[in-house]
Amino acid sequence: MEFEESGIGEECGVFGCVAAGEWPTQLEVAQVLTLGLVALQHRGQESAGIVTSNGASPPTYATHKGMGLVNTAFPPEALLKLRYGNLGICHTRYSTTGISELQNCQPFVVDTLHGKIAVAHNGELVNALALRKKVMRHGVGLSTSSDSELIIQLLAFTPPMEEMDAPDWVARIKNLMTETPTSYSLLVMFKDVIYAVRDPYGNRPLCIGRVVPISKLHSSGAGEEDTEGWVVSSESCSFQSIGAKYYREVLPGEIVQISKYGVKSLSIVPRPEGDLPAFCIFEYVYFARPDSIFEGQMVYTVRQRCGRQLAIEAPTDADVVSTVPESATPAALGYAQQSGLPYIEVLCKNRYVGRTFIQPNTRLRQLGVAKKFGALTDNFAGKRVVLIDDSIVRGNTISPIIKLLKEAGAREVHIRVASPPIRFPCYMGINIPTKEELIANKPEFQDIAGYIGADSVQYLTVEGLVSAVQEGIASLQEKDTMISSSKKSNKRVGHCTACLTGKYPVELEW
């Protein structure tokens, strides 16, 4: 189910670009940044911002921020003032903390002892309240309600061993990591470099791409000498649209320096001994775009595996398999493949209903879901339908869809959900309704099929989800071992399932 309808909000998206070679560059950095943000639009639709720098000493920064979608926030005239940048970072926002106002729009820029820095942040600090008090005790005022401002203020603090004329950004970033364990992926721009940072648990995604000539984009012959620039993004789906090839992920706890000379890993900050990584498992389920790559595997493929696992765990006597367009389509295809049932479309989505200027009256409210979906009656009349969804959060959206299908001729409608029930709030960057609002915590959940009008309802188990996600990672590690002919990989794998199990990767502070 689309998150705007289900009551869950995506987090944010960050993107950065550094032109390679001689500066001033021929690469249109502002345009690359804008296109990168457009590709990350699904991660935030509230506001967007871009900061570019000419990379000089001292650098000249240019900033533009706006509310709404990227194409609305960045008219052509706004891009003109950003066009002299040789590097830049940008951000698209869905607020998990802070009020929806332009003052909370990132990237944030602040003066430090050594010059300006700009910071873009995806995530939510688990100990933000304690950090706000600590920062204020140092006499620092905060101008926004966003916890991302805390990050930039902590980075502005001078480490004890730092020399007066040479900022030690690795030490500053490490200091930040000791102050807050998760959740953040950061882009920090200072003078002529961008530092890409992931928290030690790797809760939020971050990856690096290499901009190459279009003629070599789909060939294996693009060497280092063909590099036109470097990009860093929350998701790799943004790389194709700007002519970049996937390079690698930023590892949990890693600090990477990106400059016109290339990519350099500066340090990796470890987790407490015994702690596993905690990459958000719901990036796979539905936050990320299907063509993004995490941990060496494409999101679309993982969602198909979830569907196959769901068919194993929750088989159904039915005639056809379908989905609510369109985020659960890969899972529905996987379910169909595993079960041997045909996959068909039962709903046609009106993509523009969300933009209507017509104010809902009683009659339109009664029509409900029929404004958003049309029933493809000929495909399922008289048949038993298995409808695959990726989530049921409140239960108030799937019910009218079931009613629509039955009234249009479906003999039975069985709901299969390609993720486990969501039972707990997220405090690490995902806007999940309160525990009381979640259908899995209500008395109605005991008979959820009757509550939503389905003939049956079953969810994928937590174990099934984790297995589907980690199967591909294990396979990749096995291939790497075979290629290198070395001993088995000891890379540790772990995922955050806190919203499903209540087991948070770190102790929460209030």
Detailed description of the structure:
This protein is α+β, with helices and mostly antiparallel strands and 510 residues long. It is 27% helix and 23% strand. The protein has helices at 3-6, 29-39, 70-73, 76-80, 128-137, 148-156, 169-179, 237-240, 282-287, 299-313, 329-339, 362-367, 398-407, 448-452, 462-484, 498-501, and strands spanning 12-19, 47-53, 61-67, 87-93, 108-112, 115-123, 184-190, 193-198, 207-211, 229-233, 244-249, 254-259, 262-268, 279-280, 293-294, 297-298, 320-323, 347-349, 373-375, 384-389, 412-417, 456-459, 495-496. The protein has a seven-stranded antiparallel β-sheet. Strands 5-6-7-8-12-13 form a six-stranded antiparallel β-sheet, with helices on one face. The chain has a four-stranded parallel β-sheet with strand order 17-20-21-22. Helix 10 crosses helix 15 (462-484). The longest helix has 23 residues, at 462-484. It starts with a helix and ends in a 9-residue tail after the last helix. The model is unreliable at 2-6, 355-360 and 485-489 (pLDDT under 50).
Which terms would index this structure?
23% strand; alpha+beta; seven-stranded antiparallel beta sheet; 510 residues
Q: Overall 3D geometry?
A: globular
Compute the average pLDDT.
88
Helix/sheet category = alpha+beta
Largest sheet: 7 strands, antiparallel
